[in-house]
Records
---
Amino acid sequence: MLSSAAEPLPVTPPSVTPPVRKICHVDLDAFYASVEQRDDPALRSRPLAVGGSRERGVVAAASYEARRFGVRSAMPSSQALRLCPELVFVKPRFEVYRAISRQIRGIYEAYTPLVEPLSLDEAYLDVTENLKGIPWASRIATEIRAAIRAETGLTASAGVSYNKFLAKLASDHRKPDGQFVITPEMGPGFVEGLEVARFHGVGPATAAKMHRLGIRTGRDLRERPLAFLQQHFGKAGAHFHAIARGEDDRPVRPDRPRRSSGSETTYPQDLTETGQVEAGVAALAAEVAAWCEQHRWFGRTVTVKLRYADFRTVTRSRTRPLPVRDREALIAAALELVRGLFPLRRPVRLLGVTVGAAEAEAGAQPSFDFGHPPPAGG
Amino acid sequence: MKFTVERAILLKALAHVQSVVERRNTIPILANVLIAVQDGTLRLTATDMEIAVVEEVAGVQVARPGRTTAPAATLYEIVRKLPDGAKVELDHAGGDAALKLRAGRFNTDLAVLPVEDFPSMTEGKLPHGFALPAGQLRELVDRTRFAISTEETRYYLNGIYLHAAEGEGGKVLRAVATDGHRLARVEEPLPKGAEGMPGVIIPRKTVNELRKLAEEVQDEIAIRLSDTKIRFDIGPVQLTSKLIDGTFPEYDRVIPRGNDKVLTVSKKEFAEAVGRVAAISSERSRPVKLSLDRNHLLLSASSAEQGQAQEELDAEVVKYEHTPLEIGFQARYLNDITDQISDQVEFRFADGSAPTVVTDASKPEALYVLMPMRV
């Protein structure tokens, strides 16, 4: 498949120094858990996990009371219970979280249209030029946090700085229910003393690699030349080189286009019959199709994921020349893919259906499908 | 080397060759034109290492044969500013000596670079050869070059794919260009000698130089090629170019065969309406929506800031007898194609999101495929 992102040539930006930006990162404190405690007084001040308590469940969010025991999100529920036997589990209510997230987004949009949500509980705001004409970004952060508390009863933390990287670090600095400003003067110094593992884009594997190279703090990172970082970290090297100096020119992009949409389910009991697997895949495909229809968002690549009881996972996907637009077509495509995995070699614990490679927004210019890109050379 | 030539003759030849010289150049010799005189003939050569243009000029009074190289742009500027009818004398004593240019009371010294440093591009065998009437070559170029991709990562689309193919009415010489969003395919009867030719991708710059040079010619243009190089003999000018070393995609698979919803619309009314309606949009891609109903076409565009615009075309200029259809295209893509069409535009649609075929109702040898936008 050829790149579908082939847009007309970009216009060269004018080479003037941009004004210092004012970026806010707003992060709701223990969002899902706080919502549950808000709505059920019996849960307040108790260690709480949102997620499944059953053997295969995972903690989606933990209240601050639970975090004191070491319970973290994405932790298997069984491990969380070992750490905190008092832990109360509640089922997530995503429709409620989504509704609150929309409500809070309305608060942001009273200040700026440049809102980039990262998830239901986190967003970047560019308030350099804001709708209320407030010159102090920290004042905007204070107002937004007060409005969130008044309208939803929830607390949020905010970070204010001159780019996204530092704004996100700043919101973590006084969490929960606090805010912090990193000014251009403070930026480089703030980064110097930080552990590299706290940097955006430095996951556990990268952090371990940096440690092997003797890089533990922002200062260590800053001392390494660009060529060295590029040699060891490839494309990300330039990003690390910049953030070590507190630099990050990524814009706040409102409504980031989605790249894929999918649904998956772990079954309470493993599936052993092909008929069960087909029914499961068809149900998931129908769910994804409903989402696509509702959001006018259609992808061209259909992927089916299947995890066996022994945790071995296989995926099968196919990219079509045109987006899959209707429910029947998506179900048929998903079934065709999963049937390629029959007969079942072992019981199945999880199934997933994803649609990706979308050209979603109106105004997108799709490309021809020439099949495989031709090889280089004559 | 010393010779005299009429200003107009020299100017014309310099204009032809200097146009391939890159303005920003890191290799000094490539900014120069090679000037050689022998047996009453002047030969001017310029190259950018991808393309070389050689022009032979007769009617030169040679006092002393020889060769040198001088800055092409400067020489061209000077000759251009000389008065019409002037006689120009170029005199080079050899070696590092400056090239002296005299015309009337004007004279100048131009720095030269050694002839030995001037790269030669003309070697290598060109086993395939045929000739095309200049008019046919112009048609092949004009109707395809707007679709050439400018995206350098897909270098194999940065040119016109010229090849022998089996057309509907027999063997044809076919030119194809595409940028992945639209495709242009034009064919002419296969000329003698082109049967065994390899398919070649002629780079965009070569195409543009060729088109300029072909403008003034009425006769046949002789073409010789191998799988790495192509040469055009255009009157007194010889254009040699490297070819793009890549594989052109299987374009045939994106040309739909079964599109059955046919719209015929008068070119003038359609093109003008597209221009007017698209003017509302400030986006670069300027999407225009076509809403079709029986013998009725509504063109519309909207923009979040500017508002919206629409225009109706009815049975006077529109013929469409299928189920209603909505489809969107970039205004520029539509106009690039209608620019090539003389009277009636014929669209063949499958549905609102599938590639659409566009043809000139009176010229079936040219075919365009357009990928719709989301609207």
Note: Chain B touches chain A at residues 150-151, 153-154, 156, 178-181, 183, 227-228, 245-251, 253-254, 283-285, 287, 330, 353-355, 369, 371-375 (CB under 8 Å).
---
Amino acid sequence: MKLGKEEIQKIVLGVLLFFGLIYSYFDLLLGPLSKRADITQRSAIGLVPQIQNSAAQVQKAKDMESDSANATLIMRQVEAMIPDGSPVAWFPTRMSEFFKKQGIDRVSTRMTGDVADKEIPRFRRIAWGVDLPKVDFATFGQAIAALENNEPLLDISALQIDASRDDVEAQHVFLTVNNLVKK
Amino acid sequence: MALRLNLYHETIKTRALQRRDPLKISIYALSTIAACCATWYTIQLVRYHTYTDDYLQKKAQFDKVEPQGKAAKKKQDELTTKANQSVLMGKRIESRFYWAPMLSQLSQVVPREVQITRLGGEVTGENVRHCVLTIDGLAAGPDPRRVAEELRTAIAERLGPHYANVTSTFKSLEDGSETVLLDGRQMATAIFTINVQFHTAEPATPSPRKKK
């Protein structure tokens, strides 16, 4: 069978068309589809650790929440110890009542400073000057021991005890105390 | 030999030609290739849809879990901060300087020949509390300077076991101009100022509660 010129042209054109179709199939149809499939698969795989991470965070938070009762016990106790309202309203009264119970009647308490607590942001430290003009040393010693035991949020930073010239048995005491209060 | 004439040879030839028609064969081949390509494309399309469904499912799950995770992280941070603050608070309460035991120990070493006229004390520092005491007083006796010296050493010895780096030094020690009556005798006096320094390496134990 002998092919004519026109038939050869048709065959060549057909072959070219065939290769064109094959190229288009891979480049325009199958290629992008495979690419999209791979991207989607990778995205799905990439989401797995993020989901696991989030789930782990939720679980960890739940565990921490269940343990937080013990972990924050001191903080809750401390918060319960601090009365509501302005410290200027309750602290001097509290000191007067406390020392009165200890047998020291004359007490004068004044605020001398107010500093925000850097380490515990919800609290601030208030410095007070507690003046006890006339105390007996033994009574004062017992009172100070009771104060340190009963008021854990109170820290005596300085004290000054002066012997009275008029009364040998009496001393004049000035305490500088820092008290932790809520903001 | 008989002559056989095939009168259908043209028809047979035409049929054979039709059977071996290159165009037909090409069409068959191309159709097969096209069918294979279409099948493969369909398989890939199904695969893609499976991945898409999986992705969408995971995305929906992630969209649901992610805000919870963020909220959990925030909560976790809050709880950690609270727990740390709680520990810090406990530590701060425990590391307070307790004056009552120190005053008690100090009062036990003051002899009857000495009168403390002024006692000043200050505590500084956060974890290791550094305490400075200034004790002004009047010592009386045949040798009042010796009495004052005994008090100075007694203070250091008494506070030594309870606190760290206890130092007790005289800031001043002078003969007093006045005499005092002690045990029916007039005694010479010495005026002194003792400087005591120490710090609490570990939290001091609170003094026992007063029993009512």
Note: Chain B touches chain A through 62 residues (CB under 8 Å).
